[in-house]
Structure formats: structure tokens, C-alpha cells
Specification:
- This protein has 520 residues and is α/β, with parallel strands linked by helices.
- An eight-stranded parallel β-barrel has the order 5-6-14-15-16-17-18-19, surrounded by seven helices. A four-stranded mixed beta sheet has the order 7-13-12-11.
- α2 links the parallel β5 and β6.
- The chain contains 19 helices and 23 strands.
- The longest helix is centred in the C-terminal third of the chain and has 19 residues.
- α2 runs parallel beside α3 and α7 packs across α8.
- It is 33% helix and 18% strand.
- The two termini are 40 Å apart.
- The chain binds xanthosine-5'-monophosphate.
- Xanthosine-5'-monophosphate (XMP) binds next to β19.
């Protein structure tokens, strides 16, 4: 019979986690320092399952989270992440009220429903609309027409938005309200896409459906092309991550806020998190650079007492003691990573932090004992890093990989013909001035004396999150296929490691060729 089990010849070389990291306990290892050995497999990459349970009430369909950073995750990113089965953590470098509305945007997102369609008023001229289309580079020319109170008056069809009618008023050209097809939010029900799909089938030639409330105020627009695209996507393997009420899931970060006397501001933290919970937030992340500290522990305890069932993420730590501390305070998932991030300078500035694979190993062992999960936070630059991280954690948190995406906050800038987006560390001076100083244990308005622990940088614009995630997921599934792992638990259990020499690292990347196209 053909050998499908490990050979004893392999064992001294390709070791399971406990043996491998114990044998390398005197050196801090990160992703590129190791590689995973392949194993006999009957698993095709496309058949692998990527579901992950981060807490009793928090399950993702892909183990990827976008970082709570002000150049990475606001509602647009969180929506895109959840639609792909992952999670976005809304950052806290914004006024509390704004964070509440960012969370609401995610929780109220109806896939395919344009919640704030561009509207025009009956008094405007067709020429004004043409100018608007030109100025904003809209790829569409049909607009709902509303009065000053937001009530639907009609629909301005693309057929009449022509230069020959430029001098005409919209009120003369619109399709009147009585002839416009509408549906109420209530009628859309639990599956708005299926409802809209049925509507478009029943109404030949109608491509737009307007959503109104009982008083005929406009609340959104559904287009047939969006519905068709989404219906197609539904056949995808990874379903959106939703709560029990079918809303997309969303996380929000908070810090260990202090009052004017330097004490933990329990009341403010509780009021704010209470408001986030009212808006439907699914998980709170107590995000700081040093999670193994009294302020973070107390914040987690306060939140655990007040919200016994709310999933809590806390961090960051790189030691077993740190994991045990945060778990004992009531956290469900622990962020592991100090200084691996692409914009981090903590190791340079403060001289602390642990290379990520060693940190993950040490923390993962404590996490298993305390029945909490581990989130590998920072330093991930390629899908292979994620596969390695998932052998010791339940999900990864990524900043840099998503910062160049369309859905990340901020504008695209052009430099020498290339397109970029800003990406900055939350410990950079600019981010701390904008509010994140508490995360690094500094005063709210850091004077120049404060040593920043992050840089301000640029990432090349890289298109949509869907595209980036498709590449990452493909890589993870491929890695799982090589290890014969049908799901993430099997990946965790089966992984065997070996160290890589500097020559081995060079060998791992394209070499001795003139590269015409990069891998992505
Ligand atoms: P990547 O490598 O994905 O890392 O860009 C994102 C993670 O980096 C952490 N982070 C920082 N760490 N100084 C630091 O030392 C900073 O200014 C900073 N900002 C973010 C954070 O954990 C994030 O998820």
C-alpha cells in the first residue's frame, strides 16, 4: 500500500509546533524564518473550509480582520470585509458620535441598496445635472428627484439627460411620482436582493427600484445590474458574515480612556460602549500597544461586568502571561503582535517586541489553556504569512495589505504616474495628534517630546477589497491543500515547521529571472 503517513525519516527535520519552538526557544522567529512542510493530502484547495469561531457569539467565514487604524477601517472597509465573510474593526481616531454612525452604516447596510443615492431637485436644470455628471465623473445618468423635505417627486431618466434639453427644468422632464416604481423598506423584508430580483423579473424593462418610507421619503435605490451581480456572487463559497438578524457583523475599537486626573474614565467607556451595543456592534476591541497593563485589564473587566455576553478582543501582547492576564480579565480573543506591523517602529524606538511566529507560539499555548482565541496582528505581507500565522492562531489582523484598497479611508494621490493611498501607524505623530495617543499611553495632545512609534507612509493603490481578499483566500486554501487540512482546526493541528537559512529565503522568492509580471 502507498505510504500516506509521515515517515520517521521526516520527523527529526519537520517538527510539530511544541518540539520546533522548544528547540528554537533562544531565538525570536518570524514568518520568513520558517517554512511549513507539506503532508499527504486528499484535500483540494477549493474544498477547504475557512470558518473560524473567535468567541461564543462571534463566527467568521474567513479568518481575516481589517485593522482598527484610521487609514484602514471605517464603514466602507467594514462592509466589504463582512460581505466577504470577514470582519472590520472601526478605528477610534474620530469623535465618539462619528464612530457610532460608522457602526450604524455597517449594521444598516443592505447589500445592493444604495442608501444615499445622488438626488436632484425639481427646480434644477438638466444642464446642472450634466455639469454634475461631468464634474463627479458619474457613470450613470438617472437620478431620483426629491423636494426640499426629501419626499420623492419623480425620477429623472437618463434618456432625457441630454445637452439638447440643457435649458429645461427637471420638473418638466421627470417621470412623475405616480409612474415611478417604489417599494417600502418593510416590504423589502429579510432578503432584499431576492425581493428586488423578483420585482425586476415581474416588471419588464424596469431597471431601477426606489425605496421609500411610509411618508414617501426616499431611503435608497436598487439597480437591476447590482442585483444581478450579487445573485451571481451568492454562488461564491464564502458567505457574508452576518448576525442573527441577518445584518452584517461589525467591530469597533476603544481605548483605555483616562479622565483629567489620569484615572480610567469608566463612565465614559461604559456609556460609549453601551451606545455601540445599542447600534448593534458585534465585538469590541480594547486596542492598545501594551495590553498586559492595569489600564487595559481594568477596561476589559469593566466591559465584561457590564456586558457579559459581548465578545471582547483585547491586546496587544506577546507573552503567555499577557494572554492569561487578559483572559482572566474577561477577554475572548487576544491580539498578539508588538512591533511586527509594516508601519511600526516600536522595536526601534522602545527596543521591545517579539518576532511574530515565536510570539504566536508562546501566546497560543496559554490561549488553549485559558480557552480564548488568538488573533495574529501585524506583519502580514503575503498569503503565505497568513497560512503560517493560522497554524498558531484563529484569525489574522491586517492593516497594510488593505490600506491601498478603494474601501480604505482617504484619497488616492498620484506620484510620478503611480497611484497611492496614505497609510500611517496609529502611533505616528499625525495619528496620535488626531486622537490615538492613549493607545500608546500618551496624553491626548502629544507634545513634540513624545516619541512616535509608527511612521506615515504610502501604499500603492490596489483596487477593491474583493480582489485583494480573493488572492489571499486562494493562497490560504492552497496552503491548506498542501498540508491536507480540510479546515482551520486541522491546519492548526497538522502543521510541521523547519527553519529557513538566508539562502533558503532567497530561494523562496523569484530569483535569477527577469520578472515581467508580479505574482499578483
Ligand atoms: P500591518 O503589518 O498589517 O500591521 O500593516 C498592522 C498592525 O500594526 C499595529 N500598529 C502599530 N504598531 N506602531 C506600532 O508599533 C504604530 O504606529 C502602529 N499602528 C498600528 C496594529 O496592531 C495594526 O493592526
Amino acid at each position: 500500500m502507498a505510504a500516506t503517513r509521515n515517515s520517521t525519516f521526516d520527523d527529526p527535520f519537520y517538527q510539530p509546533a511544541d518540539e520546533f519552538f522548544a528547540a528554537n526557544s533562544k531565538i525570536g522567529l518570524t514568518f520568513d524564518d520558517i517554512t511549513l512542510a507539506t503532508l499527504y493530502s486528499e484535500i483540494l484547495p477549493r474544498d477547504t473550509q475557512l470558518d473560524t469561531q473567535l468567541a461564543e457569539n462571534l463566527r467568521l467565514h474567513i479568518p481575516i480582520i481589517s485593522a482598527d487604524m484610521d487609514t484602514v477601517t471605517e464603514s466602507r472597509m467594514a462592509i466589504a470585509m463582512a460581505l466577504n465573510g470577514g470582519l472590520g474593526l472601526i478605528h477610534y481616531n474620530m469623535p465618539e458620535r462619528q464612530q457610532l454612525s460608522e457602526v450604524s452604516r455597517v449594521k444598516n447596510h443592505v447589500h445592493g441598496l444604495i442608501q444615499e443615492p445622488i438626488k436632484v431637485s425639481p427646480e434644477q436644470l438638466i444642464g446642472d445635472v450634466l455639469a454634475l455628471i461631468e464634474q463627479k465623473k458619474f457613470g450613470f445618468s438617472t437620478f431620483p428627484v426629491v423636494d426640499g423635505k426629501g419626499k420623492l417627486v419623480g425620477l429623472l431618466s437618463g434618456h432625457v439627460v441630454k445637452p439638447r434639453y440643457a435649458g429645461k427644468k427637471i420638473s418638466e422632464a421627470l417621470t412623475p411620482r405616480a409612474q415611478v416604481h417604489t417599494i417600502t423598506k418593510k416590504e423589502l423584508g429579510r432578503d432584499p436582493i431576492a425581493r428586488a430580483d423578483k420585482f425586476f423579473t415581474e416588471h419588464i424593462g424596469i431597471h431601477k427600484l426606489l425605496v421609500v418610507d411610509d411618508d414617501d421619503h426616499l431611503h435608497g435605490l436598487i439597480t437591476m445590474s447590482d442585483v444581478e451581480r450579487i445573485t451571481q456572487e451568492r454562488k461564491a463559497q464564502f458567505k457574508p458574515a452576518r448576525d442573527a438578524h441577518h445584518h452584517l457583523i461589525c467591530g469597533a475599537a476603544v481605548s483605555a480612556t483616562r479622565n483629567a486626573f489620569g484615572e480610567l474614565d469608566r463612565e465614559r467607556i461604559l456609556t460609549h460602549v453601551g451606545a455601540l451595543v445599542e447600534r448593534g456592534v458585534d465585538v469590541i476591541a480594547v486596542s492598545t500597544a501594551h495590553g498586559h497593563s492595569k489600564g487595559v485589564g481594568d477596561t476589559v473587566k469593566v466591559l465584561r461586568d457590564a456586558f457579559p455576553k459581548l465578545p471582547l478582543i483585547a491586546g496587544n501582547v506577546t507573552s503567555a502571561a499577557g494572554v492569561e492576564f487578559l483572559a482572566d480579565c474577561g477577554a475572548n480573543a487576544i491580539k498578539v503582535g508588538q512591533g511586527p506591523g509594516s508601519i511600526c517602529t516600536t522595536r526601534i524606538v522602545a527596543g521591545v517586541g517579539i518576532p511574530q511566529m515565536t510570539a504566536l507560539y508562546v501566546c497560543s499555548r496559554a490561549a488553549v489553556k485559558r480557552k480564548v482565541t488568538v488573533l495574529a496582528d501585524g506583519g502580514i505581507t503575503k498569503s503565505g504569512d497568513i497560512v503560517k500565522a493560522l497554524t498558531l492562531s484563529q484569525a489574522v489582523i491586517c492593516g497594510g495589505i488593505f490600506a491601498g484598497c478603494n474601501e480604505a479611508p482617504g484619497d488616492v494621490v498620484e506620484i510620478s504616474g503611480k497611484l497611492y493611498k496614505e497609510y500611517r501607524g496609529m502611533g505616528s505623530l499625525a495619528a496620535m495628534k488626531a486622537g490615538s495617543a492613549a493607545r500608546y499611553g500618551h496624553e491626548k495632545n502629544p507634545a513634540l517630546k513624545v516619541a512616535p512609534e509608527g511612521v506615515e507612509a504610502l501604499k500603492e493603490a490596489c483596487g477593491s477589497v474583493d480582489r485583494v481578499l480573493a488572492q489571499l483566500i486562494g493562497g490560504i486554501q492552497s496552503g491548506m491543500g498542501y498540508l491536507g487540512a480540510a479546515n482551520l482546526t486541522q491546519l492548526y493541528d497538522k502543521a510541521r515547521y523547519i527553519r529557513v537559512s538566508p539562502a533558503g529565503q532567497r530561494e523562496a522568492a523569484p530569483h535569477d529571472v527577469v520578472e515581467l509580471k508580479t505574482g499578483n
